[in-house]
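User: Hello, can you help with two protein structures?

Assistant: Certainly.
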Amino acid sequence: MTRISDGWGSGPSARYDEIAAHFRPIFERIAQTAIERDQERRLPFREVEWLREAGFGGLRIPKAYGGSELTLPELFALLIELSAADPNITNIFRSHQGFTEDLLNAPHDQWRDEWLSRLGGGEMIGSGFSELAGAKVGDYATTIVTDGDGYRLNGEKFYTTGSIYADWINLGAVDGSGEPIAALVPTSAAGVEILDDWDGFGQALSGSGTARFKDVRLESFHIKPNSARFPYTTAFFQLVHLASLAGIGRAAAGELSRHVGARARIYPRGNGAASAEDPQVLEVVGRVRGPAYAAGAIVLNVATALQRSYEANLAGVDPTETDIHLLAEIETSQSVTVISKLILEATTVLFDALGASAAKRATALDRHWRNARTITSHNPRIYHDRVVGEFAVSGKKPVAVGYRKIITPFSTTSEVAELGGV
C-alpha cells in the first residue's frame, strides 16, 4: 500500500515508493510491539538491528560505498514513516544520520572514504556532544589530550542518544590547549561506560543517558581531521525532531481510527448507532488526521530547503556569498512552533472521540503525547519564534546555540553547530 492510498500524499520523488517498499515491512514489525516496548521499557536492540541489516544506516551514503544515495527529502519521508512505527528509533538514528551529513560535506580524502565505507557496511554512530556540568551548549569539560603516539579521552556526556546501540560515539571535546576537537570513540573500548539512565516520561527508549570516559585510549584514526560540521547542521537535527512529530501524528490518527471503528459503546447524547457513525466523533478523527497530514507536508517542504543547502555546499558555493544556508535555517524555525502545536493538540484531542477506556494503560494512547511533549521540549520553540521574527522585521541572520568559529573546506570561517539533545 502506498502513501497516496493511505491519504498521506505522494512521496518526494518518483522512486520513493520503491525505496520505501524495502523498509515498510520492517516498520510494520516495529509498530506491532511498540506498545509492549513502551510499557515494559524494553530497549529496541532487536528492532535497531533489523534496520541496520536492511541498510537503514546507509540511506544517504553513495552507492559506491554500499549505501542507497537518497536525497534529503527521501530520507525525511522515510523518517516520518519510521516515526509512525516508533519515534524512539528515529531518535536513535539521529546522530548517525547527522554524522553521515558531516561526511557527505567533508573534503574528499582517505579518512572520509574510510568512514563512508564503514557506514555503508552497516556500522552505526551515536551522539556524544552534550554535557550537564553547568556549561553552555557547545562548551566542554571533556578532554582529548595527546598521549605518546595516541590520545587519551576523559569526561562525561549526557543526552548520548543512540550510543548504547552504536559501534561509535561521535564526540566533541577540547584538547590540551582548550581548542575544540572531535573524535569517533569505539563504544567497546576500555574505559567507556554507557548507562541507560534517561528517565524522561517520553522518548524513554532512545538511549539518551550518560556516557563516561575514563582514560580511553584513542589512535590518530579516531580523531576527526577537523571538527567542522555541515552548514545546515542546526536545521537538519531540528528537522529530524519535526519528522518524528509528523510520524507521531500519523500513528495517533491511525490508532484513533481503529479504536473508533471498533467501539461498540455509545453515549446517550450521541448522534449515531455506533461511534463510527457519529458525526461529532468523526469530526474529532478529522481534527487529528488533518494536523498529521499538514505536519508531514511541512517537513518534506523544509527538506527541499536542506537539499538546496547541501547541493550548494557540495558545489563549493562560498557561504559568505549566499543566503541558501540561512534560508534553510529560517524555513526550519518557521515550522517548529506550527508542527509542535499541531501534534500536541492532536495527541490531546484524540481522547475526546473515546470514552474513559481510552485512558487504560493497555491502549497506550498517552505515549503519543508523552513522546511529542518530550521532543518539543528540545531546542525550545520560543527561540525559534524570536529568530523568525527578527529575520522578518530586520533581516537578522540566526545564530545557532553552540556554534564555534573554525575552518571549513569551503570558507575561511564558519559557524558550526555542535548539538546534543534527546
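That covers the first. Now for the second protein you mentioned:
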Amino acid sequence: MIPHLMKTNRLNPLTILLCTLIGLLSGCQRSAKDFTVSGIVAGAEGQTIYLENIGLSSVTLLDSAKVGTSGKFHFKRPRPDYPDFYRLRLKNQWINFAIDSTETITFTADAKSFATSYTVEGSDDCTAIKAITLAQLDASQEIAHARDEYQAGTLSDSAYRQRIVSAAEAYKEVARKYIYARPMSTAAYFALFQQVDGMLLFDLYDKNDSRAFGAVATSYNNLYPESPRSKHLYNLALQSLKVTRNRPELNLEGIPTKEVEMIDIELPDLHGRTVKLSDVAPGHITLLCFTAYEAEWAPALNLTLGSIYEKFRGRGLVIYQVSLDDNVHLWKNVASNLAWTCVRDPESVYSRYTALYNVRNLPTLFLLNRHGAPVKRVDNPDRLESEIQALL
C-alpha cells in the first residue's frame, strides 16, 4: 500500500515546471497591480510625509507615514489605469512625480531642500519632471522679482511685460526639449501645464505653443484614448488649433492713430442692455475682471471679489466683470447672484476686447484709475486688497 500511495502523489517534472510558471505569473500579476514609492529623507525623522494624487482639478490625499529614525519611508498603492501624477509632501515642500509603467520609484532627499535637491531612481520621466520643475521655479522667481520692481515703481509697464515674456520663454526652451523628444511621456504632459501665479507658461492661443499642445495631445490620444487626461488635453488642443488658425492677422499700416486714456468695452448685461465700461468707470476706482464662470477656480474668485467689493464699495470701488463663457445659461445663473456689473462677450475666446487688453489667461484683472485708464494688471488675486487700498 505504501509504495502505491507514494506513486500516486508524486508530481512529474513537467507538472512542477508548470506550477512554478503559474506561480511566477500570478506573482507578477499581483505586483503589476501596485506601485511602490520609497526612499530616505535626511533630517526628517519623526515627521509626517504625505502621498497625494494630482488630479485634473484637485489634489487628493492618498496616504501618510511617519519618517523612520533612519529617514526611511515607504508607500504602496494601486497602480492607476492610465499614466497619472502624484507628489510627496513634507510640510510645505513637495516633489512631483508620475506613474506609468513603473512599479518602483526611490527618492533620496534632505528635509531642508526637499523639493529641489532630491535624486530619483527607477524612472527617467521622473528625472525629467525634476528638471522641468526647477525650470518652472526659475521662471517663478524671475517673475516675482519683476513684479516687486514694477510695484516699487522702478520698472515700466513695457519692461515688466518683457521680463515676464522672457522668463516664460526661458522655461519653454527647457520644456520643449522633453515635449518634442518624447511627446507621449508623462514629462511632456507635465511640462505643458506648469504655471506661475495661475498663468500657464505655455499659451493655448499662441501659434508656437499650440504646436506643443498638439504634439502631446496626439500622442496621448493614440496611446490612451480612454484616459480622462487624454480627452481633456485633446479638447484643449482642438480649441487652441481652432483659435490660432482662425485668428486674423492684424495689419495696422495706414490706420490713423490717436492717443486714448480709456480702452472702452461695450457688452450686454443680464437683461440684454449694452453697458459701456466708460459709463461705469469715470469717477471711480474700477476693477476690470476677465473671467469664465464655468472654470473651476471661478467660485473662489467671485467670493474674493465679493469680500473686496463689500469692503470698498462705499469708498468708490466698482467692478466691471467680463465673462467669456460659452454657456449663456450658466453665466446668467451665476451673474444674477453678483452685486456688481456683469457682462458677457458672445465671441468668447475670439473676443476682440481680450486682444485689446492683451488677455492671455483667465482670470485677468486690471485696476483702472478714476479716469478709466488702466494703471495696473494684478496677477495675483490675493494682492487685490492692498493694491486697491493704495489707489483709494
